Amino acid sequence: MADKNVHYKKVAASKDFRKLLEEKRRFIVPMTIFFFLFYFSLPVATSYFTFLNTPAIGAITWAWLFALTQFVMTWVLCGLYAKKAAQFDKYVSALKTESRGDDE
Amino acid sequence: MSMTAFILFIAIVGLTLVITYFAAKKTSNASDFYTAGGGLTGFQNGLAIAGDYMSAASFLGIAGMIALNGFDGFFYSIGFLVAYLVVLYVVAEPLRNLGKYTMADMIAARFKRPAIRGVAAFNTITVSTFYMIAQLVGAGALIKLLLGIDYWIAVLIVGVLMTIYVVFGGMIATSWVQITKAVLLMLGTLIISLLVFAKFDFSLLKMFEQMKTATPLGEAFLHPGNKYDVPLETLSLNLALVLGTAGLPHILIRFYTVKDAISARKSVLSATWIIGIFYLMTVFLGFGAAAFVGTDAITAADAAGNMAAPLLAQALGGDLLFAFVSAIAFATILAVVTGLVLSAASAFAHDFYSQIIRKGKASEREQVKAARFASIGVAILSIILALFAQSLNVAFLVSLAFAVAASANLPLIIFTVFWKRFNSTGAIAGSLTGLLSALLIVSLSPSVWDPSGAAIFTGEPLIPLSNPGIISIPLGFLAAYLGTIFSSEKADEDTFTEIQVKAHTGMHMDTD
């Protein structure tokens, strides 16, 4: 199909597609940096320091609470992505409608 | 072997064979065989991902590690879960949009050179085989302990069953075996956790308070550093855990079993809930085993602690619960090895045979036939390797599989979708460097060399690091980068534009 490249170039240059990529980047890049830092702060803190060994609630130490927040963090970040992705889907369906219009 | 255990094992075998019978009737073309025709819902696939992922190493291994080492065992639980953020944010949706049957499909969507598909397929086979040998050796040892039958018979039973599921029922049978196992595993873990929690009067404070005196470690049981006292080792392990999942071929192919990227996303979201709840419960399994079975009894049954969960079930619920948990462990092993056979076999049959040798011209019948033969071949090979590896300590192969997945596969996947300049030289360089460096480091590490003979060879390890990730993962990414910028090959911008549009919109899938 000779016009295949033309077709994809046209979509790639469209305003909706640029916006989709831009919004994805604006969400995914900072969130990924955040969860990496958050995740690695646990092994770094337990490897090089002992302050997490102090009791927080009764015999439960800060290390366990921090470990628990890793679970909460994962679920919250999944939920945030699901919400954000619903917006991405709107751009995608707009793009699909446009491109179908072109075909006809 | 108790009668109850025997009946429950037979019930699981019977149930999975019924699933396979119905799956076989629905498996007629290559798409059915490799991806269940893309017909699963997001939630079903989420359960199947959980069933594919939570291996015996998770259920039995982590319970044992927490029971014996306290906090350090929990690192695995955290890493295995947080890893799904990488899967969700960067891998699942583009993979679903670009690929068809295998991980290599996604890479080959951008790079047409057969060598690249070959390298990606080879990595798939390597990772899946390592993982499978660890599972089969563990399975043999475990079933031997649980049922009192010989190791080789146990390996053979598991090996024959996984072959039957895949050969006759392909991905449909694999998916439903995994879904069944996920439900059983969650149920069993929940029952034991509640029983343990009841013993502590449903008070977390009381549970932690009592754990301070319940083990020989004393208060240190609750503190990190009992198993991982070398910081670099801890960080290396964590890096491989969090990045490895997104490069595990047997997990990645699960995203082809749903119809589109939105369903792939829903699969990860469901899987993350299920897997997270499971890994939280590993604390109850580990604490319970430490408190109510005891360190001595756990290590007497199995030095690595793999019997902690079944023994805990026995202590809390007698023979009936022991039999139930043993049967769940059996189902867990079956579901994971089945997924691994399918992923290795699809790399052989789809990537090497259909795409590279037949150049995509094989008929549907030929493809299904090739896939079935490849499954039998993969299964026989793994069974033979597992029989030879009986006396070897191969538990490290699981973490090696994660390290290879993160070092060789992840750079390839991420750069293919997100880096415009990435070219085929970089792809091959990154992939091979990641693979070979991880293998080389491990082959010189304490996992393979031990002066007292506790590893495969006797002698001083040349590299003191058991987990290669912290070296091999950066090397894999670096080699992919350097290979790209130093090669004279020009980036194909038109193809990248096409890949970008496809990966982020999936619009080409509507018209296909």
From TrEMBL, chain A:
Transmembrane helix found in the keyword field: yes
Keyword Membrane among UniProt keywords: yes
Keywords from the UniProt entry: Membrane, Transmembrane, Transmembrane helix
Organism classification: Bacteria, Bacillati, Bacillota, Bacilli, Bacillales
Transmembrane segments: 27-49, 61-82
Name this polypeptide is given: DUF485 domain-containing protein
UniProtKB/TrEMBL annotation, chain B:
Record's bilayer topology term: Multi-pass membrane protein
Annotated GO MF terms: acetate transmembrane transporter activity; symporter activity
Subcellular location: Cell membrane
Coiled coil segments of this chain: none
Keywords: Cell membrane, Ion transport, Membrane, Sodium, Symport, Transmembrane, Transmembrane helix, Transport
Top-level division of the source organism's lineage: Bacteria
Transmembrane segments: 6-24, 45-68, 74-92, 120-143, 149-170, 182-200, 235-256, 268-293, 320-349, 370-389, 395-419, 426-449, 469-486
Cellular compartments per GO CC: plasma membrane
GO biological process: monoatomic ion transport; plasma membrane acetate transport
NCBIfam families given in the database record: sss
Name of the protein in its database record: Acetate Na+-dependent symporter subunit involved in volatile signal for biofilm formation
Organism: Bacillus altitudinis
